[in-house]
From TrEMBL:
The keyword Secreted does not apply. One of its GO terms (biological process) is methylation. Keywords: Methyltransferase, Transferase. The lineage of its organism: Eukaryota, Fungi, Dikarya, Ascomycota, Pezizomycotina. One of its GO terms (molecular function) is methyltransferase activity. SUPFAM superfamilies: S-adenosyl-L-methionine-dependent methyltransferases (SSF53335). It comes from the Eukaryota. This is S-adenosyl-L-methionine-dependent methyltransferase. Signal peptide: none annotated.
């Protein structure tokens, strides 16, 4: 808890400093781009895969994100799908005794190769290695367990911000999950506060070019458009970090139309 509190304080100090700098050194505000005007940045992950973990480890540590990752992954049971798996930053937190199979999906082959190495490092159980898959594909496409069934648990961390069609991505996650299953999302996006959103908007393009993610997306709005049945939402770090628990849409339930 002391580490988490200090992390929040550190985060607030950094963003407030950025706010003061911007308000004193800029003229007109920069507006957030609609989803259909945000360029596809998936290629960035191929380039930064070797240095990705070292580049974000310090900031994640001070923000307490490893704790949130641990909480999320500890809830994974049965046949598990991890979408937008990246370099496997959740890998070491899995409780293997609760798993029947695990499937890691990502569009970036270099990122997923790092995840494979992390899996071998943290999980020596041969039975689990035989039931683990690393699939290079767009998570917006259909996904199933090795036996062709739907998953008991679907998790995703920091995936909405980087996908070119995040609403379709979430609809695919809903389709991949059993009706009685659980979907857990750990995401980042727009804040509770307009002054912080102005900072995110101003540097969104630069951040996307560097890290491959659009950090100023309206996460709750995107989730709402997807049709997932949300049971819990918690927000941290001035509202920019989202914890969302959801279930697939009920059969025949009408979805909200996607608005770009």
């Amino acid at each position: 808890m002391p580490l988490y509190v200090s992390g929040v304080g550190f985060y607030c100090l950094i963003v407030y400093g950025a706010y003061v700098y911007i308000t004193n050194n800029s003229e007109a505000p920069v507006l957030s781009k609609p989803l259909n005007e945000q360029k596809d940045t998936s290629h960035v992950y191929d380039e930064i895969a070797p240095t990705y973990d070292s580049g974000i480890s310090t900031s994640e540590f001070w923000m307490g994100l490893p704790l949130l990752r641990r909480w999320m992954v500890k809830k994974a049971t049965g046949d598990v799908l991890e979408s937008s798996a990246g370099t496997g930053r959740n890998m070491k937190y899995y409780n293997v005794g609760k798993l029947r199979s695990i499937t890691f999906v990502d569009t970036s082959s270099p990122m997923l190769e790092v995840a494979k190495q992390s899996f071998k490092e943290h999980h020596q159980e041969k039975w689990l290695q035989a039931r683990a898959r690393f699939v290079i594909q767009d998570a917006a496409a259909p996904m199933r367990t090795p036996s062709g069934n739907k998953f008991d648990t679907v998790i995703q961390s920091m995936g909405i911000c980087s996908h070119r069609s995040p609403v379709q991505l979430l609809r695919s996650l809903g389709d991949a999950c059993k009706p009685e299953g659980t979907i857990i999302l750990l995401e980042h996006g727009r804040s509770h506060y307009d002054w912080l959103n102005r900072i995110l908007d101003r540097y969104a393009d630069k951040h996307a070019d560097t890290w491959g993610c659009w950090w100023n997306r309206d996460i709750e709005g995107i989730v709402g458009q997807s049709g997932l049945k949300v049971s819990k939402v918690k927000r941290y770090h001035l509202g920019t970090t989202y914890w969302i628990e959801a279930q697939p849409p009920s059969s025949g339930e009408k979805r909200i139309e996607e608005v770009e």
